[in-house]
Every structure is written in structure tokens, then in C-alpha cells.
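Hey, quick one: can you model this chain's 3D structure?
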Amino acid sequence: MATLRSRTISVAIDRAPADVYAYVYDAANMPRWATAFVRAIRQDGDGWIVETPDGVMPLRFVPRNELGVLDHTVTVSPGQDVLNPMRVVPNGGGSEVLFTVFQLPGMSDERFAVDCGYVQHDLRALKTVLEGAG
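Sure thing. Here's the predicted structure for all 134 residues.
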């Protein structure tokens, strides 16, 4: 399989990495900041069920860790899991949140650009929520 086109989008947040990590890892918070993707969410065993503009999708984070890794898999259709690499890393006295978007096989350049825009929008919203400016 060839490598996929990707874009890593980041935002600086004036909060400690542990605070940012804990907030994002609690997927129940997603409707407050991931508004381009999440309409509603509910826990389902060890994972989550997300209502999105494209339908209902299971979501599962990697196990909680001390490295700031927030990778999560979304099942977009039966048998098609999409990995969303996400990290929180220290940035001075605050944090940098990084999210990598992949252009999946068959995805148009236009759809890829839209998805990148959604991620950028959501990371800005995360910043607003966590910095208390909204």
C-alpha cells in the first residue's frame, strides 16, 4: 500500500498538557468542541457511539497513557476503521495539540480540504473552551 497524503494541524493551548489530555480523552466532552464532527455521543462499553453528519459511528481511543497520545479509531462503515492520530505535547508553559488528517483512498482533494477545515475549526474550538474564552 502506498503512503497517503496527510496534513497535521495543530493549535497552541494555554493549559497544562495533563489538563488538555484529560479533557480530550473524556469523549463525553466532544460535543462541546468537536462540533464539526460530533452531534451527540454516548458511551458503549469501552468505546463510544458518535452521531456525526455522516451517520452513527463507533469511536475508540487508545488506552490512557502518560505520553499524550490521543489516537482514536472511528468505524466509518463495517470493516472500515479510520485511525485519527492525535497528540498533546508540552509547548512552553502550555500545550500543543496535533491532529493528523489522511486523504483516504478514493477521497477527493476537495473532501480532504473540507475534512482538514473541520479539524482546524474543532481545534480552535478546543482552545476556546479550555482557555475559558467562550
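One thing worth noting: The chain has one domain: 6-131.
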